[in-house]
Every structure is written in structure tokens, then in C-alpha cells.
Amino acid sequence: LNGGLTVDFGNFALRSITGYIDSKNGRLFDQDNISADAINRLNRNEGRSFSQELRLQSSGKQKLDWVVGALYAHDRIRQFNSITAGRDTSYTDPVTGEVIGLLPPIPAGFRINENNKIFKTESIAAFADVTLNLDKLHLTVGGRYTHDKITNSAFGVYAFESPVPDIAGSASFNDFSPRFVARYEFSDNDNIYATVSRGYKAGGVDINSGIVSRFRPEKLWNYEVGIKGSALDRTLQYSLSAFYLKWSDLQVQTNFLRDPSDISSAVELTLNAAKASNKGFELELQARLSPEFRAMVAFGYLDSKFDKFPEAVLAGGNAVDLTGKRLPKTPKFTATTALDYEHEFDNGWRLFGRAELNF
């Protein structure tokens, strides 16, 4: 559910934005990845999220545009995870006839690992933004203060049918993030801009095998310059930006077995990479080829690396030094091209088609 309300007072307006999400999902799958029914896994997840934002902001074109506001958000996620034994404790190789032992002689449904977890986040924020409009030059200064409380708990935990004591942990974090923007309009349709902004992502609490571990907030400085505009009587739109991102305590997820011979010792851990960076550029062109055809092409280059990450933990629990290595899921080159077709018939019906290629 999403709700919006705006009250206009002339030179300024009050806006209210409310959001609520309730989601559930479940899955049962073959954990052993072989044809034998040896190990099964069942997951059930429930999530609820509520947010309320109030914003007071200037209306119309003024020399000084401003906005002040506050936000409250609450998220609650409940997870159930169960890894159980199947019907087969051994596997017969169809080629050699060799019998391979998979599990000790335990009955079907034996709980190898079972747990319930509840994860809560409560966030309160206040923000303000002011833009000074000087003919073609626009200067913006803003800031946001955030307070986050994170709670994580585990209960109903079993390891090889043996109960494990309940455990919980919590942590609170505070942050102030500013931003600065300068934009110059050298024509009605073209402008250049430069921005410096700080980003923040709350830390949290991990619970694994009866151990509570806390990880630090992730912080980021973003520097960006760019140009946006149009040409050929607005039939061609273009944008080009170059950026540099500098992280401290970048949060990185890792999964491994604390004891490689014990599948009930699975660990999901959040690590903090001391320093990381991204730098690159993005180019995008959109062209109106005819009243019915529109084309788009975009290209990006990204140079990313861990500037300092001497104690990374990989699968198997092995500690390695990833300093100087590329960040995961950050391709060096990206490219997209698309062609849109839209035709409106006399009776009001509309035909739309799109072909798209992403690299």
C-alpha cells in the first residue's frame, strides 16, 4: 500500500508519503544436488515494512528553493530455515555399482540444522536541502541525520536434533551525510553539473552458531561531474558523467562452514572491507528517429577495487588478502542498446514494442 497527500499553502506545500509492504515466500529444494534423496532444505520468510515521511517544501520558481522533512521506517523480517535428512543415506553409482555413503544411519526428517530468526530495523531521519537560484547558476547544500537501531535474534535452533540456546543482539548507529551540488545552464536545454555527496549504510548484527558479531556502518564519498542536454531540435538527448566513489568499511557478504566436515556449522557473515573505490564514466544517447521510433544506446566503464581488505574470508573459512582485487559484480564494461516502436490507432488503441540488448 502506498499513500500520498499534498496540502498547498501557496508559496510552500506539505507532503505526506506513507508506505506499507507485507510479503511472504517459501521454498523447498534439493540441498545435496544429486539424484538421491539425501538432504532437503525448507525456507519460509515473512517480511513487513512501514515508512512515513513528512516533507515541507517551497512551491513554484523562487530564488531560494528549500525542503525540510523527517522520516520514520520500521522493518521486520522473520525467517525459518530447516535442513533435514531425506530417505536415502547412501548412493549407488549407476555405472560402477559402487555404494557411496552419504549420511550416518539417521531417519528421514532428522533435523540436521533448524532455526528461526527475526531481524528488525528501526530508522529515524531528518533532512534539509536548500538551492540558491542565480539566473543560470544553481547551488545546492543539503544534509541528512539518521539514527538506526538493528536487532537480530535466533530461537528454536537445533543442530543434529540437539537444542541450542536462544541468542540475540542489537546495535545502534548515528550518521550525518551532507551533499553539495553546483549546476550551470548554458542554454534552455543543456547544463553541466558537479556534485559531492556522502552516503551511509547502517551496520548490523550477525548471529551464527551461538556467536554474536557486529559489523560497522558502510560510508561513501561520491564525486561526480557531468553534462546533460539535447540537440537537433531536441530529437537527440545526451548525458555524459564521470564519477569517483570512495568507500570506508564497505560491507561484504561471505558464506562458509565453520567446520568443513559439519554442514550444521554454516556461517553467514558480513565483513567490513577497510577501503574500496570505483571510478569510471557513463554515456547515454536517446534519439527520436521518427514519430513512432525511438532509439537508445548507453556505454559504461568502471574501474573498481578493494584498496585495503587484508582479512577477507572466502568459502571454506579461508582468510585471504583481497587488497587490489576487483569488487564482485562490477563489470569493467557495460553496454545497452534499445529500439522502441509506438503506434496509436484512430480508435484509441496503442501498439508498443521494444527490442533491447544488454552486455
Looking at this protein, list some descriptive labels:
mainly beta, two-stranded antiparallel ribbon, 359 residues, 15-stranded antiparallel beta sheet, 0% helix
Q: How widely separated are the two ends? A: 35 Å
* SS-derived structural category: mainly beta
Low-confidence stretches: none
Q: Figure out the total of helices.
A: 0
Using only C-alpha atoms, the radius of gyration works out to 27 Å
What is the strand tally? Answer: 21
| Sequence of secondary-structure elements | EEEEEEEEEEEEEEEEEEEEE
Commentary on this structure:
The chain is an all-beta fold. The chain has strands at residues 2-8, 12-30, 39-58, 64-85, 90-92, 99-101, 111-134, 137-159, 162-164, 167-185, 191-201, 204-208, 211-215, 218-231, 236-257, 266-288, 293-308, 312-313, 319-320, 333-344, 350-358. It has a 15-stranded antiparallel sheet that branches. Strands 5-6 form a two-stranded antiparallel sheet. A two-stranded antiparallel sheet has the order 12-13. Strand 1 and strand 2 form a beta hairpin. The two termini are 35 Å apart. The model has no long low-confidence stretch (mean pLDDT 93).
Summarize the structure.
This protein is mostly beta strands and 359 residues long.
Fold blueprint:
Layout (H helix, E strand, L loop, with lengths): L1 E7 L3 E19 L8 E20 L5 E22 L4 E3 L6 E3 L9 E24 L2 E23 L2 E3 L2 E19 L5 E11 L2 E5 L2 E5 L2 E14 L4 E22 L8 E23 L4 E16 L3 E2 L5 E2 L12 E12 L5 E9 L1
Antiparallel strand pairs: 1-2, 2-3, 3-4, 4-7, 5-6, 7-8, 8-9, 8-10, 10-11, 11-14, 12-13, 14-15, 15-16, 16-17, 17-20, 18-19, 20-21
